[in-house]
């Protein structure tokens, strides 16, 4: 499904800002613009199309490889089981996706997220998110770089990056001044517990 925006309702118009007369064709979007486009069906997510917004620019995400998808699915399942085992299912919910607003001009689609059970929003707000997970194969540099900083600046409590190739989990906790005050690098021999559930004790050998 696609939608054509008319001259008066295009979300691009108000961002042109005179650039056209200089031969520049780049338009910067806001997260509200992206939400409008997604609601209108501009991006057909049923066919696997995934886009993110970073600093006003659309980023088309490549298709997931099996190792990438398997790692995130296993970790999400382990988190779900831990939440149920600890009797926390009325407070927390694990999502295998969803869109998180991180600023007015950036919104990401993580591979996993733990959110408040009662969260209701088309795009999730940072205060509704307790943990964000990115599974990284071809995107490790971005996930450990610009995304790391963006999630911290947004105030996300905790951010995990699965390094699929090297079988490692990068754990970032407690955002502070646009970055993180705590960082751990764990292997398949380790276990991990998120801040919201310190007794979860998830064995990473079940992920890698």
Describe what this molecule looks like in 3D.
This protein is of the alpha+beta class and 208 residues long. It has two domains: 13-61, no CATH class; 66-206, Alpha-Beta Complex (tt1808, chain A). Helix content is 23%, strand content 28%. The chain is built from five helices and twelve strands. It has helices at 13-16, 31-39, 66-85, 140-144, 146-154, and strands at residues 50-54, 57-61, 92-95, 100-101, 107-108, 112-116, 129-136, 158-163, 168-176, 179-187, 191-192, 202-203. The strands form four sheets. A six-stranded mixed sheet has the order 3-6-7-8-9-10. The protein has a two-stranded antiparallel sheet with strand order 1-2. The longest helix is centred in the middle third of the chain and has 20 residues, at 66-85. The chain starts with 12 loop residues before the first helix and ends in a 5-residue tail after the last strand.
- Distance between the first and last residues' Cα: 37 Å
CATH superfamily of the largest domain: tt1808, chain A
The number of domains is: 2
Strand order across the largest sheet: 3-6-7-8-9-10
Residue share in helix = 10-25%
Q: Give the overall pLDDT as a whole number.
A: 88
Radius of gyration: 18 Å
- Which spans of ≥5 residues are poorly predicted at pLDDT below 50? 1-20
What is the name of the CATH class of the largest domain?
A: Alpha Beta
Give the helix tally: 5
Task: Describe the main β-sheet briefly.
Answer: 6 strands, mixed
């Amino acid at each position: 499904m696609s939608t054509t925006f008319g001259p008066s309702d295009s979300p691009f118009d108000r961002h042109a800002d005179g650039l056209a007369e200089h031969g520049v064709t780049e338009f910067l979007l806001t997260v509200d613009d992206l939400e409008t486009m997604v609601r209108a069906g501009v991006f057909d997510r049923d066919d696997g199309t995934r886009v993110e917004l970073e600093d006003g620019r659309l980023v088309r995400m490549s298709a997931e490889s099996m190792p990438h998808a398997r790692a995130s699915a296993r970790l999400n399942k382990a988190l779900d089981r831990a939440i149920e085992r600890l009797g926390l299912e009325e407070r927390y919910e694990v999502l295998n996706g969803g869109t998180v607003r991180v600023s007015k001009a950036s919104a990401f689609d993580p591979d996993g997220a733990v959110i408040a059970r009662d969260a209701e929003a088309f795009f999730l707000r940072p205060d509704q998110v307790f943990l964000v997970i990115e599974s990284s194969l071809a995107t490790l540099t971005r996930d450990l770089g610009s995304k790391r900083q963006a999630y911290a600046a947004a105030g996300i409590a905790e951010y995990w990056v699965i390094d699929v190739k090297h079988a490692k989990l990068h754990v970032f906790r407690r955002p502070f001044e646009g970055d993180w005050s705590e960082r751990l690098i764990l292997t398949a021999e380790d276990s991990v517990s998120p801040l919201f559930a310190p007794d979860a004790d998830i064995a990473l050998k079940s992920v890698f």
